[in-house]
Amino acid sequence: MRIIDCSEISKKSDFNNYDDYGTYPQADIPCAKCCNSIKIHFNNLQKHSSNSFSHLRNEDQLKMNIFIQLNQLTTPNSWLDYYCPNCHISTRLYYESWVGGRHGEYGFRLCFVLFDV
Ligand SMILES: [Zn+2]
What we know:
Layout: E1 2-5, H1 6-9, E2 14-16, H2 17-20, E3 26-30, E4 37-41, H3 42-48, H4 58-70, E5 78-83, E6 90-99, E7 106-115
Antiparallel strand pairs: 1-7, 2-7, 3-4, 5-6, 6-7
Bound molecules: zinc ion.
């Protein structure tokens, strides 16, 4: 299992609805095994925020949960996961969903990614 900080692999790691709504920015998350990039959009982050739906099989989720526990990692409040469409390793992106600041403002900060390599 490998853990990589989003600031090391993505130029964009902060999203908010004031700046990013309608401009469709994206973060490119390169796979730690094959380097194939996945594009993460504002909508993807919004959809998965405080949502426990997983795209991974139970055993792959469990493997990641155990890794988090064993390493006593503090996880942000949101995540989304997927299999790399190219090499099929399981991947989980952790991010923080927040509200506040200016009126009606909300957004997301990408934190780190777990790769099953
Ligand atoms: Zn891959």
